[in-house]
Amino acid sequence: MLNQYDKLMETMMFMTDTMPEDHVYSRTLAAPVDAPVPEVWLLGSSGSSAAQAGRFGIGYSFAQFISGQLESPMLEAYRTNFTPSAFMETPKINVGYFVMAAETTEEAEYYAASLDLNLLFLDKGMPFQIFTPEEALNYSYTEMDKMQIEHNRKRFLVGSAKDVANTLREHDEKYGVTEAVLGTISHSHEARLQSYRLLAKELL
What we know:
Number of strands: 5
Number of helices: 9
Shape: elongated
Largest sheet: 5 strands, parallel
Strand content: 5-15%
Structural class: alpha/beta
Distance between the termini: 46 Å
Radius of gyration: 20 Å
Oligomer: single chain
Helix content: 40-55%
């Protein structure tokens, strides 16, 4: 049975027309023919996925929003194992974060309470819901819940736009990250847009 990396390798062979003649899909053509080869990225959250992305010669997108364990050794595993390919000549890394930025830290914390409870429900195997900040702040949390929420905070950045932008710059310098992928989940669509606007103003 093929694992996820085998399937990814098959997909890349389709894209580069390098399927071995004895492969079951050797007579299957990928369309469009003679199209430019796009960049390929692997989303992962461990040292093994980082090393595999390097061996494939593709970009590595670290899922900080999943693991909350961004560390230099796993990114170095990617760079050390990187082999140039038809998809990329040099290693490229980006990091995906949950983010809630606002004018002030207090406002950001207010809106982030919603995601705190959303993630807690997911951790408990309960249906995912987008709670209002008021519902989240008034929820009756156990001590274990509070510990889990504190642990989950490693997965996202919360604060004033200036502070969040400074953290992203620090990660750029410390880890050599070339791009950040930011996702804001909020009950308020306007708060979500404002988070992006404020960060764009700080970073662009």
